[in-house]
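Hey,
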Amino acid sequence: MQVKDLTIEELKLLIQESVAETIQSLLIDPDEGKQVKPEVKQQLLDSLQRTQAGEGGIPAKEIAKKLGLQWE
């Protein structure tokens, strides 16, 4: 069957199904169910503690400069 053979309602349904499938595929988390390595978890916890203690991170402008980018 070709698109030209579809009724308007059949075409609408086909488009809706295609959009729904596309949205569903974008919403799937590829990391779902995976475990975070202990060292990564510790790094994240350390970073969180530093942030909560008021310690600032590296400014975005500095990171951009290291990467050869301009930050405005």
